[in-house]
Inverse folding.
């Protein structure tokens, strides 16, 4: 479904992403982990069209999307959420999600109905009329997901939708992601919270200084020497054991 | 999106009263005020498409107003053609210029965009005031009055209905922007361009469309204004004062709302007319006092009712319904 071939992205002298290659197949739930500054979000920006790769190819459903702007990529069926949430702050939750739904639906009434369904799915029902900027962070993260879902993606990229949430909110969003995945959606998830990632992801890609240092099942990743040195640390391994 | 139903009724009342005024009133002074309120309201509504709905605050919309005014005035005086042809020419030129300005809004954000629009209107001012052979330069162009619809030589009552027609049409455009797919997508672009892109919206193109539409709408009223007033002065039609006025009416009335520009125009135009009439007979030292009051009104609104008159009405309405509950 999605193939990255030796993708690199440089900012001046800094190589943010170097020679990253991986594949995502239909129905996958791929996790991307790595320390701050490892290039995770940069990689998302390249895949979703917000920045151009300096080298390599990004192929989605057989089409090279390397030069397509984000709105075209979204219409092809690939969209993303933002780590620093970007709600349409002065609009209601319902209007936010409706704007997503209007990408596939050309008239307003069906888009509103679809938005209501998506809002229910994401557990935002009681907040449909609230102004987006008045929501607490946990709900704004859910709104990011709801809005993206309303565009009916086939592949959804989630950029740290769990960061900054309390344990209850966290459990809720993990449950939501699992439900979306079992409903047939393919996902790539960037996350720092290893416990959640271990339970969710089928495969994990580990980035460090822009390079892919490991790829595998969660249990393989936690045993990988380079991953432990670069990211997890000995304490994690001991705690897990 | 602002609450719909009460605002629509307010609009029906507003335009209904304007429609009824000529039935009972033959006083040219009052009819003139109604015409100006409607024309300034329509101009502010046009500005609102770019400034309110698309979030591209322009301080150079006088450029499009002037293009419309000059196109019609030159069409009638230089080429002896109908001002309606001038109107079409003005719209065509404004679409071209608006497309360029809209494209600029993708490169220049916020204050830089506003400054570039000022610069654009100033360039047109220089052209109009220096190109003596064609535009008559700084002397301006008197527009001859030839009675008839085709020549736009209309009486006061007919002008009330012309102005009302444009005003209602422009109000309908704003309602469309609140209720249509394009309007919702534009709201998304205004709130956050990157997020809108991720949702499949061509942000840049949407902004260009909105600014272009706004420019064309402004140009149409520029034509009507020139034909109604009967004189085109480059230092007036391309002035920053005028550009600021479109923005101020809208901000005072309620930016990004359908009726806001018209309420702002009602308040500011009548206040100005009244103050000018009241103070014009006094010593010359008081001649500009209406500007002081005008400015004070603006500061009060921005400080205490930043969402404008329509927002104030919504707030009071909400309070009352809560008191009833």
């Amino acid at each position: 479904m999605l193939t990255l071939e030796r993708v690199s992205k440089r900012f001046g002298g800094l190589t943010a992403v170097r020679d990253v290659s991986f594949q995502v197949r239909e129905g996958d739930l791929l996790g991307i982990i790595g320390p701050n500054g490892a290039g995770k979000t940069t990689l998302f920006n390249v895949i979703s069209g917000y920045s151009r790769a300096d080298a390599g190819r990004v192929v989605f459903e057989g089409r090279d999307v390397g030069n397509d702007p984000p709105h075209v990529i979204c219409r092809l069926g690939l969209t993303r959420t933002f780590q620093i949430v970007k709600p349409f702050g002065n609009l209601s939750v319902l209007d936010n999600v409706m704007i997503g739904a209007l990408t596939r639906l050309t008239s307003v009434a069906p888009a509103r109905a679809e938005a209501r369904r998506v809002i229910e799915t994401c557990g935002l029902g009681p907040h449909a009329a609230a102004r987006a900027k008045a929501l607490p962070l946990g709900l704004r993260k859910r709104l990011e997901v709801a809005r993206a879902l309303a565009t009916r993606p086939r592949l959804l990229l989630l950029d740290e939708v769990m960061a900054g949430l309390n344990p209850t909110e966290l459990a809720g969003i993990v449950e939501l992601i699992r439900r979306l995945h079992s409903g047939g959606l393919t996902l790539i998830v960037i996350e720092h919270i290893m416990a959640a990632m271990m339970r969710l992801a089928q495969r994990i890609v580990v980035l460090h200084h822009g390079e892919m240092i490991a790829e595998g099942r969660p249990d393989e990743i936690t045993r990988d020497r380079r991953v432990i040195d670069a990211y997890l640390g000995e304490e994690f391994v001991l705690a897990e054991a | 999106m602002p609450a719909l139903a009460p605002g629509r009724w307010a609009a029906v009342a507003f335009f209904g009263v304007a429609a009824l005024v000529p039935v009972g009133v033959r006083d040219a002074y009052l009819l003139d005020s109604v015409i100006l309120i409607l024309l300034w309201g329509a101009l502010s509504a046009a500005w609102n498409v770019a400034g309110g709905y698309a979030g591209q605050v322009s301080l150079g919309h006088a450029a499009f107003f002037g293009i419309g005014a000059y196109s019609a005035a030159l069409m009638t005086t230089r080429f002896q053609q109908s001002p309606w042809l001038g109107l079409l020419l003005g719209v065509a030129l404004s679409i071209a210029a608006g497309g360029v300005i809209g494209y600029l809004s993708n490169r220049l954000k916020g204050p830089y965009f506003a400054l570039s629009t000022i610069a654009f209107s100033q360039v047109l001012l220089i052209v109009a005031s220096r190109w003596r052979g064609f535009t008559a330069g700084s002397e301006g162009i008197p527009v001859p009055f030839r009675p008839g619809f085709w020549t736009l030589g209309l009486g006061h009552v007919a002008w009330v209905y012309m102005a009302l027609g444009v005003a209602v049409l422009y109000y309908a455009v704003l309602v469309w922007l609140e209720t249509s797919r394009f309007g919702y997508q534009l709201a998304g672009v205004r709130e956050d361009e990157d997020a809108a892109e991720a949702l499949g919206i061509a942000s840049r193109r949407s902004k260009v469309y909105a600014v272009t539409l706004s420019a064309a709408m402004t140009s149409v009223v520029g034509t009507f204004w020139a034909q109604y007033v009967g004189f085109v002065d480059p230092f007036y039609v391309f002035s920053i004062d005028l550009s600021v006025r479109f923005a101020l009416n809208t901000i005072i009335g309620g930016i990004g709302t359908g009726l806001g520009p018209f309420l702002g125009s009602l308040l500011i135009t009548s206040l100005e007319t009244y103050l000018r009439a009241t103070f014009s007979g006094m010593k010359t030292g008081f001649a500009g006092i209406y500007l002081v009051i005008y400015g004070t009104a603006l500061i009060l609104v921005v400080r205490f009712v930043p969402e404008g008159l329509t927002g104030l009405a919504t707030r009071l309405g909400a309070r009352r319904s809560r008191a009833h509950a």
Q: What stands out?
A: The first strand of chain B starts at residue 141 and ends at 142.
